[in-house]
Each structure stands twice: as structure tokens, then as C-alpha cells.
Specification:
nine-stranded mixed beta sheet; Rossmann fold; single chain; six-stranded parallel beta sheet
Length: 335
């Protein structure tokens, strides 16, 4: 039998504890080799609770002594690039939480380092792995709904207090506010479902937080090739009954949406509900998306599937940079 894939986890914050560690503990063929966090007490306590033998406060020491085959980077945004580069230099494959870097130039550096090291990097855009998003993507790629014309998407949450945001409220550590936190993955999902069209121009409006450092509401429109339009609305200040998460597609021969999954196509001149039916999983879509993402990544590490370099993240970051420029200069920006 092949040896277990040894995983090192860098950063033991919320996403590590809520998403990655619970899934890794249940996956077959995986060993959590070590945890690493600058907070020694936190790293030690979590290692004991999760039954992980080794914990570190220094990344280089973890890479040298734990010798992980792969690393998952869950640190604040401004550390993603440097931690990914360190892991690649040590010969480890990497899953890195979004964004892979703060700027487009950093994304390019990571891609070059991965190519040089002959190691895989997967950016944790977990929404692509949601079962409802996968179903919509399959309908569109199969041509059943015709050409995509418009995608409207958004993610609205309520985070009242500054302490709930932590480092995300500090631009030097986050790179931006709600647009980087919620907008980046929503735009990634929309562009992926649309077939990765070239974005020709963007228009955006951002509202800054009371402290003025980062945006807490964002409205974005992307004008893409072939007449495709993508609208995105994200907010940290949504006051309502829980959070809102949606993506709606209008295409030439039908429409589709997620959360919940609904698919309609034109048949004999009438709209027909062709939403897939079948056994529903008791697993929530958040957990399912991360589990599927890890399964895909590990299959790539084992050589069972080909993991393409995340070159699409270069385009995505250029779009985000144009969005911030559009909001600041208050006019449309061409790419």
C-alpha cells in the first residue's frame, strides 16, 4: 500500500479548525504530521485536542523536521505568498487559502516557484467544489443551457464588531476588505462557471468601514468578451435573517442557480425544470466543498489526476486590482 500523505498545517485560526482539520482527520491515506502557529499555546492546545504529535512555532523548523509531503497555508493574507514559497522550496505541495498573494506580481512569483520545484499549488477556491456549482458547471459546459449571457452573484454577512474581523480590518495584512474576503471567491466562482471569459472592463463602487482602512460593502460589474456580464454584490454589513449567498446564471437556452440548486431549460417552447434529483447528502455544502477539494488535491499529489497550475489567479487578481482602481477613481477601468 502507498504511504500516507504527510500534511503540515500552517496557521491554526478559524478556517484551519472549522474546515481543514476536521476533514483531514477523516480522510484515508492522510497523516497530519504537524501544526505550526506563532502562538505556541494555541498550537500546543490544538495539537493535543486533534491528536497531532508535533507542533511548531517556526515554519522552517516544521518543514525541516516534520518533513511534510504537502502543506496547507491558513495564515493571514499577507503571509500566504511567503509561506507558500517556503513550503515549495522545502519540496512540499501546497494548498493555500485565498488569496495566494496580495498582488498579481506575487501570484506570478508563486507560479514560477512551483514550476521550478515541480510541485503543485492549489488555491482554496472551495466554492468550485460545491455539488450545486459542479452541477451548473456541467450543464453549461455540455451546452444544454446555451451561451452564458449574465451572471449575478453575491455574498452578504453581518459582522458588527471590529474584533470579529481581526486582521481583516487592517489593510496591510488583508490587502482589502470585503472584496478580498468574500468578493474574490465569488468572482472566481462566477468567472469559472462562465468559462473564464476575458474581462474587458470593470466598474465598481466600494463603501469603506468607519475606520476608513478597508471596504465593507462592494458592488462590481465585469464586462467580458462575447457580451457576458457579471454582477457581484458583497457585504459585511448585511442586517437580515442570516447570511445570503447566491449565484444566478441566465443563458441563451436556460437558467441556473445555486443555494439552492435550480436548473431550467427551454423545451418545446416552454421552460422545463431539469434540476438534478437524487439522494441528498446530510453533509452541508461548506464541508462537502472542502472535502471534495482535498480529495482532488490529494489525487494530484499521488499522480492520479493532473493538477493544472492556477494561472487563472493572475487574471483574477488583475481584475480585483482594476476594481479597486475603478472605485477609487470613480470611473470605468479597461483591462
Amino acid at each position: 500500500m502507498p504511504a500516507d500523505v504527510r500534511i503540515g498545517l500552517i496557521g491554526t485560526g478559524a478556517i484551519a479548525q472549522v474546515a481543514h482539520l476536521p476533514i483531514l482527520r477523516k480522510l484515508k491515506g492522510v497523516q497530519i504530521a504537524a501544526l505550526c502557529d506563532s502562538d505556541a499555546a494555541k498550537a500546543r492546545a490544538l495539537a493535543e485536542r486533534m491528536g497531532v504529535d508535533a507542533w511548531y512555532t517556526d515554519i522552517e523548523e516544521m518543514l525541516e523536521f516534520a518533513k511534510p509531503d504537502a502543506v496547507v497555508v491558513c495564515t493571514p493574507n499577507h503571509l500566504h505568498e511567503v509561506h507558500t514559497l517556503s513550503a515549495l522550496a522545502a519540496g512540499a505541495h501546497v494548498i493555500v487559502e485565498r488569496p495566494v498573494a496580495m498582488q498579481t506580481a506575487g501570484v506570478i512569483r508563486v507560479l514560477k516557484a512551483a514550476e521550478k520545484a515541480r510541485r503543485h499549488v492549489l488555491v482554496a477556491m472551495n466554492h468550485r467544489f460545491r455539488s450545486d456549482a459542479q452541477a451548473v458547471h456541467k450543464f453549461l459546459r455540455g451546452g444544454e443551457l446555451g451561451d452564458v449571457m449574465t451572471i449575478r452573484c453575491g455574498w452578504n454577512v453581518f459582522r458588527a464588531a471590529k474584533h470579529q474581523l481581526g486582521w481583516r480590518s487592517r489593510k496591510s495584512e488583508s490587502g482589502g476588505g470585503v472584496l478580498m474576503d468574500l468578493g474574490l471567491p465569488m468572482l472566481d466562482l462566477a468567472m469559472w462557471i462562465a468559462g473564464r471569459p476575458e474581462v474587458e472592463r470593470v466598474s465598481a463602487s466600494l463603501h469603506l468601514s468607519g475606520g476608513g482602512q478597508v471596504d465593507e460593502l462592494a458592488g462590481v460589474q465585469l464586462y467580458c468578451e462575447r457580451g457576458i456580464n457579471i454582477y457581484c454584490d458583497v457585504s459585511w454589513r448585511f442586517v437580515g435573517d442570516g447570511e445570503r449567498f447566491w449565484l444566478d446564471v441566465q443563458a441563451g437556452k436556460g437558467s441556473a442557480s445555486i443555494s439552492p440548486l435550480r436548473v431550467f431549460k427551454e423545451l418545446h417552447g416552454q421552460p422545463a425544470d431539469v434540476t438534478p434529483t437524487g439522494a441528498t447528502s446530510r453533509e452541508n455544502l461548506f464541508t462537502q466543498s472542502y472535502r471534495s477539494e482535498w480529495a482532488y488535491f490529494l489525487a494530484g499529489v499521488r499522480g492520479e489526476v493532473e493538477l493544472a497550475p492556477p494561472e487563472d489567479q493572475i487574471r483574477l487578481h488583475k481584475v480585483v486590482e482594476a476594481i479597486y482602481r475603478s472605485a477609487e477613481e470613480r470611473h470605468e477601468v479597461k483591462l
